[in-house]
Amino acid sequence: MTNDGLALATRGLQKRFGTRPALAGLDLSVPSGVVYGFLGPNGAGKTTTMRLLTGLIHPDAGTIEVLGRSFGRADRHRLFEVGALIESPSFYPYLSGRDNLRALAATGAPTGPGRIEELLELVGLRERGKDKVQTYSLGMKQRLGIAAALLSDPRLLLLDEPANGLDPAGIVAMRETLRHLAAQGKTVFVSSHVLGEVQQLADVIGIIAAGRLVREGPIDQLLLGEGAVRIRVELAEVDAARTALVPLVGDAMVEAIAGDDGWLAVHIAATRASEVNRALAQAGIYASALEAGNDLESLFLELTRGEAGASHEGTFFGLAGSNDAPPPRSGAADASTGGPS
Ligand SMILES: Nc1ncnc2c1ncn2[C@@H]1O[C@H](COP(=O)(O)OP(=O)(O)OP(=O)(O)O)[C@@H](O)[C@H]1O
Ligand SMILES: [Mg+2]
């Protein structure tokens, strides 16, 4: 395959652990020189994808292309072009932060003099660089992990939940650092649960659920196109609600959201939510919940609603406007989540 202009591409990537599929044919297209936000509920397959992309584990099927060339079992040496931070980084606890970076530099790609001091400064660890890593806080270890990933000045950076354990100032600093790297033409592939953060950080996002891509594209475009009002009606009234709304938005613009729980997405600007409400009321239907908005959280919930119920995440993200428990897991992403099948 050739994927011009892409820093990273996967096609049909599959990975199962025992009988459970973690990735069920994942197709990602990550353009060069962008910050790509990789999103999905707990267990969706983000870390598995990152581990496959760095050769820590191998796919059961599918292909990976890194920086324009196919990446296979024998290609781990090419990882000098790629910096990665996956799960909690491992360091020698009895060595200082600085010495850990030196040890990594000694085994990795050549780094210029002063690089380690520059990175300690960048991640705000210059003062603590001489202290043993075992004395670091969670956020300090995470900062050191980011420094380690940047050591070889990679063209592609893979970061799995880099905001883990970072305080607000650390998150702002990380965002500035990652934006700066993208401005230099590097590609940053970053998974995150902090949707507001991703909305500020990423140029392009990919959302996965149950090991498949459900949506991918420039964030501005996705949020624009997804302008949606979500309503919940009695199950028995779903068809009548659809009929009542079609004159307002057209046939294709009312769709059931994953799960048989009466949620419908109406593709209409959030500012027209009251028109939706009125059309329903005129048909004698009263929604038990109505949400409007085209922020990333709404989009994420809409696309992964059937999945988020599998974990506590449904509660963490909150189902605004709904007092009910999150719907049960619907299994694989189905057609209504927009995923390719
Ligand atoms: N080593 C493993 N052995 C067995 N199952 C695994 C293993 N690693 C991952 N899985 C399973 O694969 C699926 C995807 O896990 P993964 O860690 O990739 O999710 P994730 O998207 O990173 O989730 P989180 O948001 O919680 O970090 C889950 O069902 C998980 O239980
Ligand atoms: Mg993970």
In DSSP terms (H or I, runs of 4 or more residues), the helix count works out at 11
Structural class: alpha/beta
Number of spatially distinct domains: 2
- Rg computed from alpha carbons, rounded to a whole number of angstroms: 22 Å
CATH architecture of the largest domain: 3-Layer(aba) Sandwich
Helix content: 25-40%
Your description of this structure?
The structure is a single chain. This protein has helices spanning 46-53, 97-107, 115-122, 138-150, 168-183, 195-201, 219-225, 238-249, 273-282, 296-308, 313-317; strands at residues 6-17, 20-31, 35-39, 61-66, 69-70, 82-85, 156-160, 187-191, 204-209, 212-218, 228-232, 254-256, 263-266, 289-293. The protein folds into 2 domains: 6-217, P-loop containing nucleotide triphosphate hydrolases (Rossmann fold); 223-337, Alpha-Beta Plaits. The strands form 3 sheets. It has a 6-stranded mixed beta sheet with strand order 6-7-8-3-9-10, with helices on both faces. Residues 308-341 have low confidence and may be disordered. A hairpin with a 2-residue loop joins strand 9 (204-209) and strand 10. It has 341 residues and is α/β, with parallel strands linked by helices. Helix 8 (238-249) crosses helix 9.
